[in-house]
Amino acid sequence: MQCSRAGESGGNVGQVGRTYPGGGISMNGFNVGIITAAFSDAEGYLFALLRRADVSSVSVSAFPPEATGVRSLDTGKVRYGLDPRRIWESEQDLILICPEFYFQIPGEGTDGAAIGWLSGRSNAVEAFPFRTLSSVIETKKAIARGDIGEIMAVKAFHRGGEAAWRSERVHGYGGAFQDVVHMADALVWMIESPIVEVYAEAGCDCAAEAGSGPDAVFLHAAFANGATATIDLTRSSPLISPVGREFRLELVGTEGNLTLDAFRQRNESSGGIHSTRAWSHWGDDLHATFVDAAIASTRTDGYDFRSDDSRVYEAAAAAQESARIGKPVRLGSLFRNSRGETP
To answer: Quick one: 233 and 114 in the same domain?
Structure first.
């Protein structure tokens, strides 16, 4: 992360070791449920949970089952392919809900209608993992300290995973549109102001299959505090990308600028007859840091992953509608969040 104030040269912002509420993790026999819409990140959460000695069981839903992104594992710890309602109603110490699940329920509509039965559990955590990355945490701290003054504008880029099913609307909520929730949540969490209006344009790669969702989305978002953000959600450039996922920000404030590249910590290697190049990420593990923080959050009331989640889900639906009609869309009260509340 780079931060510079007006009239100063850029410099590294020192990273402070992450501390999560609840302190050390020592409880044995932790039971975790994952409610997912065949979202590939759920696989990362599953493997992160299985690496923990204090987790005794993981129950995983996958909808639709024919498009699951989570492999069935031959282990006594995992119960796989369960009905999401069964997981919700069972005895679990923690339930992780992948955000895309809200757009995948039969009978609820693809416009993000509220899912009434997903309410009433204090140990349910929305899977917004970017909040737990060191660079994102330090950026939020820098903004809160006023290091660059008031935020006026943000230029952002986010490219998610490359699972094939994500380009199909029925399985991935309109291709790249589903990536809106993660970037929107990170920005709302850091800036501490809700999104009030979005304008989006979208398109498909010429090689995309017929009927697939867009793999390129450009989104303009306006925040309640007057800040604006331009977000590039293109997912059609894997050949030139050094890592499978990208999350970058440039924030412009009244007193300086700040840049963030969440996956910049990587090794590059090249060689061989054809001079092949390869990259490997060595920084924060996105899934492991989130799982650690989520489990810690169940042992204290000091952290809530679900703040203003309804508004970021609505931003994804509004972006899709904006691209369809070619006009900006104001956010209203289309969604109920995980606590059964409307914004």
So the answer is: no
